[in-house]
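Render this sequence as a predicted structure.
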Amino acid sequence: MGVKVVKFGGSSLADANQFKKVAAIIKSDDKRRYVVPSAPGKRFSEDIKVTDMLYKCAEQAGSGIDFSETFGMIKDRYNGIISELGIDMSLDDEFDSIESELKSRPAKDFAASRGEYLNGKVLASYLGFEFVDAADVIIFDTKGMLLLEETVKAVREKLSGLPNAVIPGFYGRTTEGYVKTFSRGGSDVTGSIIANAVKAEIYENWTDVSGFLVTDPRIVEDPDVISLITYRELRELSYMGATVLHEEAIFPVRSAGIPINIKNTNKPEDKGTMIVSDDYDFSTEASYTITGIAGRKGFSTINIEKAMMNSETGFGMKVLKALSDNGISFEHMPSGIDTMSITVDSAKLEPVREKVLAQIRRDVNPDHLEIEDGIALLAIVGRRMKNTRGTVARIFAALAHARINVKMIDQGSSELNVIIGVSEHDLNEAIRRIYDMFINSEKQ
């Protein structure tokens, strides 16, 4: 029988009622053997996440401030869940141990990790599953880098004799024995690692949305759910700000060829989004020309003009060295015979703007040099674009009809995506127009 690893986010485990939904989902499929929980999230919009309260406890303890009131709120949260679930268990010993550790060594990583740790304890008891402390199997080096090979080995050894287990997400331990967390959202990474280690047939990531949306619902009302997306497409969209899955969570399962299914805890009957390898058989798939649209603001473009630039050996290298010397990486660099435009992150450029301009003037002596701020980058991503004629023409037609000026266009050699630069104030309308051109029109 195949194995499924299932990860549940904070909204899926925010209260006892959500715990009951999660248990029903797990028990409905015997393949769902290994469970990775997050810490309790918000129960309502003004609520405070348990992880945020734990961070506050560490800050208060580190400043010599009594954190008992904040920690008391955390205790009440867990005890309330236990009481409503009717579980015969107590976390009093764990609470005492955490308080003692925070008083003697108020480390932020340790404090933050306790949300998942305690939630894992509660969920394991409620399900009747074995609890496996992530600190025993997720291993980091002394610099905080994940040791994937050692971790996979430790997970396999620990789970080999366990038919079912709950392994908290978000944290592990260093080789020196200290608790270390991933960045926020790191429970996704834990789930992916566990799936890799047990050679799961699928990694289910349960959250509060029914999959990955074609675009931002704050811009386009009720956008379609992407039914099938490749790892590469997801990476392109995530880079441009589309967020459902922690970026680092892709790699452990991608290397093992394990698909990810993003599902909705509150609507388990929805199919959600399947994230698959590029070699997946798409022959029976019915989909739109594009897979997704995402955009980000906060870019600047350095525009350079110089006659006979193309014949000057090392011109581009000198320009890029000016950026590198000042700690700036570039996003895109379209060029012509006598022109070059380099798009960079505005926030990173601002502190060294004049130094960069001065070095470019000194090193390449351009005829014209300027920086244009207020640029947004828009990514149109889709595996089907490569074999569909007229895709770029349709993009430009949609923007032209909306009188949106295109400041930059860049297409990778894979033809998987088209990147367009527009003014920040045009970004949302550009997304709406492209969505209408490719999604709404192809529905008809």
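Summary. The mean pLDDT is 92. The chain has 14 helices and 17 strands.
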